[in-house]
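Comment thread on ticket #2218

A.B. wrote:
> Attaching the input chain for the structure job we discussed in standup.
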Amino acid sequence: MLEMPDSALQQAPMRASTTDDPQKLLLFAIEASTVGPVALATLVEIRGGAARSLGSNLVVTADGRFYGYVSGGCVESAIAAEALLAIAEGRDRVVKFGDGSPFLDIVLPCGGGITVAIHHLRDRRTLHTLLNRIEGRTPVSLCYSPRAQALRLTEEVERSGWITDEFSTAYRPRTRVVVFGQTGESQAVARLAEASSYDVVQLVCSADAARNKEIIDRFTAVVLVHHDLDAEAPVLEQALHSEAFYIGALGSSRTHKRRVDYLTGRGFGPGDIQRIKAPIGIFGPTRDSISLSLSILADIAATRLTIFG
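C.D. wrote:
> Ran it. Output below, let me know if you need it in another format.
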């Protein structure tokens, strides 16, 4: 249970967590706002290089705790101090750090600069609805209006950024990894994906896939590590009929040629077949399950970043 001390506004900023998971950050903001004032800081401009992407958030409570990142960790305490001022004044602030900033003693290691909008959160219901939507696998955007000093939700935007006089942050469901197989490799992929905070679903037979066909959406990566083309075929076809952003299959180039011949015979065209990453993974042949898992998860992360940013 969160507690807010009487001397809240006199507390020095202090990091509450090292995670940058957007859903955990939103939950922290909602919980903290039930017991005291909260500020939501958003990265709205990057000048030169930066460690974080536009739309990254930092949540700051009135007792000085902060959660999240808008840089590599070099200015978060300073932003939290500005957020405490916004809370004390009851109004929003916009601050610059690094290149072009009035704070001469705060230099970003990358040599660039950032602008951060600090919003004194007045209505946690907006964040609660946002969290419910992305947990329900629905992408959504959070729009911040500096003029109105307010937040509102809109449909998904392609990239976080300014649209006229509002800044829109894209929030998307976490990556779901569907792993099909009964091998040591499949277990290793599932363990590493869970450790990476992905939503993991393990399938061991085609019947599992038939019962769970609705789980594959456009934020899903399908990983086929079954060592049996006949066994993988129903799941592979299901994946090709879905919007999955990544489909990867285990096997050599020779094995994949057989897979292509099978799919062609089933009526799948070149565009469908080209969606399959085979041999699976981001680097060459591996000889152990951990290396294979790292190769697969790195490939999934890189693919999602390319598609969704």
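A.B. wrote:
> Thanks. Noting for the ticket: Residues 289-308 form the longest helix (20 residues).
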